[in-house]
Request: fold
Amino acid sequence: MKDWIEGLGCHLCTSSSRGMPTITISRYAKVLSDDEVAFALAQDEYAVIKPDLDENPWVAFGVSHLGVVKAPYQFKGVASVINSGPLFDKISSEAKKLGVKTSVVLLVKLREIYCTRPGPQAGWRLDTRPYEENLKLDEKWSPPKPPPRPQ
Reply:
């Protein structure tokens, strides 16, 4: 999961206190630990979700560019906005190498992980299931074939 998050970027979803969702893309993410992910957001990326974060710190994210993969996931957690300090400096320096001019770092403390692949496991909360059961999910699943292209 770490390689996917860091290598492919993520779609970040926020919600207003009224429940209206908003999505933005983060081109740079860094997994800091098993329960923390930092996102470098440019000003335009942050501006899209700032009003929601002012009202509601909960975010969800999924890895971008996956298409059909063996085990897609949705992560949920509580975000805090960092705009200075050692963590900001480290993440913004790394993101700059990829062309991201960091306005803020969004630090997400993970609370929940869900399965989003098609089939009966869609929506299962994985972080509360035994590890061995989660391993069995990958053994049973084969990705669906893409639909045929129009002629």
The helical segments are 2-8, 43-55, 86-96, 131-140. DSSP finds four helices and seven strands in the chain.
